[in-house]
Design a protein that fits this description.
Blueprint: E1 6-10, H1 17-27, E2 33-37, H2 38-44, H3 52-75, E3 79-84, H4 89-98, E4 104-110, H5 113-123, H6 130-138, E5 146-149, H7 155-159, E6 183-184, H8 191-197
Parallel strand pairs: 1-3, 1-4, 2-3, 4-5
Antiparallel strand pairs: 5-6
Helix pairs in contact: 3-4, 5-6
Length: 214
């Protein structure tokens, strides 16, 4: 069985990942793509007040389960659009453990801090300061196959990049084309596997009580 392709969107809260994912589902006609969102997994947890220790443990288990759910869906041939917040290095290394790097198109979704804060206030459903907390952490590993800036391009423009979707077959099926909105990052012969492997396994995120979490 041919494993599914994974378009992996990584960015802070309010950066526009889910909006891009929705646009991709409407545009991608090479295969049947499903959207797996870390926010959807967060919403499955009970939202009662938790101690910091309880919350931290539950959040880590949720992330571990999310990564393995993505892997299981792809293993049986499902093409996926995944949106995630890699705000802790261990999340990145865990993804490398369970996801075949050659099947992942790694997309960095960027947005300036000021615009993130404006969106956060306008949404009203995110903890104030969450995007700022994540801002310097999410893209710290440095390497992507493609990148976009949602402050200068609409979600649909990002999703319509010619590098998406990846080719359905062959050794280069996840190699994107260059383009003006989502642009190719020089892979220097290393690929997404190197980007994932660069992360340290330390845990730096302060816990939050009773919240979905970053």
């Amino acid at each position: 069985m041919t494993p599914g392709r994974i378009i992996f969107l990584n960015g802070t809260s309010s950066s526009g990942k889910s909006s891009i994912a929705r646009e991709l589902l409407g545009l991608l006609d090479d295969g049947v793509y499903s959207h797996l969102s870390v926010d959807a997994f967060n919403a499955m947890r009970a939202q009662r007040e938790l101690s910091e220790e309880e919350f931290d443990a539950a959040l880590r288990r949720t992330r571990l389960g999310f990564h393995r759910s993505v892997a299981a869906m792809a293993e049986v041939g499902n093409d996926l659009v995944v949106d995630h917040v890699l705000s802790e290095p261990w999340r990145l290394t865990d993804c490398l453990t369970v996801l075949p790097p050659e099947d992942v198109l790694f997309v960095g979704v960027h947005c300036p801090r000021e615009e993130l804060e404006r969106r956060e206030r306008a949404r009203g459903d995110r903890e104030a300061g969450l995007a700022a907390l994540q801002y310097d952490l999410v893209h710290a590993h440095g390497d992507y196959d493609l990148e976009c800036d949602t402050s200068t391009a609409s979600p649909r423009a990002c999703a319509a990049h010619p590098g998406l979707p990846p080719s359905p077959a062959g050794p280069d099926r996840l190699q994107p084309a260059a383009g003006p909105v989502l642009h190719r990052v020089m892979r220097r012969g290393r690929g997404v596997g190197h980007a994932l492997a660069c992360a340290d396994a330390s845990d730096t995120r302060p816990a939050r009580r009773g919240r979905p979490g970053p």
